[in-house]
Amino acid sequence: MSNTEQIFFDHRFVWKYKWAIVILPILFLTPSNFIKANKISYGNIKDNQCPVECDCLGNVVDCINLQLIGAPSGLPPWTEILGLKGNNIASLEPDILLHLTKLKELDLSGNKFGDDFRIILSEGTHLQMLKVNKNQLTQVPDMFFVKNITHLALAHNSITDINGTALLNLQRLQNLDLSGNKISVIRNGSFLAPNCLTHLNLNKNQIKVIENGSLDNLTSLEELRLNKNHLTQLKDLFTNLKKLRILEINRNELQTIQGLSLRGLKKFKRITFKKK
């Protein structure tokens, strides 16, 4: 065989071999296998789709003001921020959020959650912010199911008392918003142990009395807002709040702030006091 014939033969052999590589997998892909593979692919796409009722952008799933009575099924597992505010939801199905292991923020404001409020999350979920504003709560719910949150908003409910036991589990909580409720007394036991709370908003309640010692465990507190309450006196309540920087006590029933002791508060910067 000449060199030219040898080269021609080698090229034909290579091309036949290449076609065999392409054709053989196709021959072995039976109709049933093809359907199965197609289902798996479609299933993965379906699991990652935005629910029909909602709007999605990036890692945000927005399902607000839709008159929903429950969370949509099939919430995508990549959800980090979930908005369900402005609906008619009174409870959530136990397993509806279990697969959302990346969830960081959950907004349930403007619904119908009552004192039996519960959500169930996977142990691997590290929810950081929970908003349950404008619902039907009359007390601070037990928060054992969201131990890692840093921001909790329970504003504009009908809460009458701060349940220190409920807050005891939230050892990483930094920001607590209880504004617009019906709290009349801050009692000893409202904050049972030293904690990480840095911002506390108690504006627009009905607070008349802050019991001595009731704030002593707020050793990390930096900002305290007590605007639009019914306080008549403030005396020796803040001496243990060594990190307090800002105190707002506008529009209460205080005639004077004489006797208010801020001694030892080395980081204190501002107090705002306006009469009604």
UniProtKB/TrEMBL annotation:
**PROSITE patterns recorded:** LRR
- Transmembrane segments annotated in the record for this chain: 17-35
Residues of the LRRNT domain? 49-81
The protein's matches in Gene3D superfamilies, at most eight in alphabetical order, are given as: Ribonuclease Inhibitor (3.80.10.10)
Give the top-rank taxon of the lineage listed in the UniProt record for this protein: Eukaryota
The record's InterPro entries line, in alphabetical order, gives: Leu-rich_rpt, Leu-rich_rpt_typical-subtyp, LRR_dom_sf, LRRNT, SLRP
What keywords appear on the UniProt entry? Glycoprotein, Leucine-rich repeat, Membrane, Repeat, Signal, Transmembrane, Transmembrane helix
Give start-end ranges for the coiled-coil region(s): none
Q: What is the official name of this protein in its record?
A: Leucine-rich repeats and immunoglobulin-like domains protein 3
* Source organism: Apis cerana
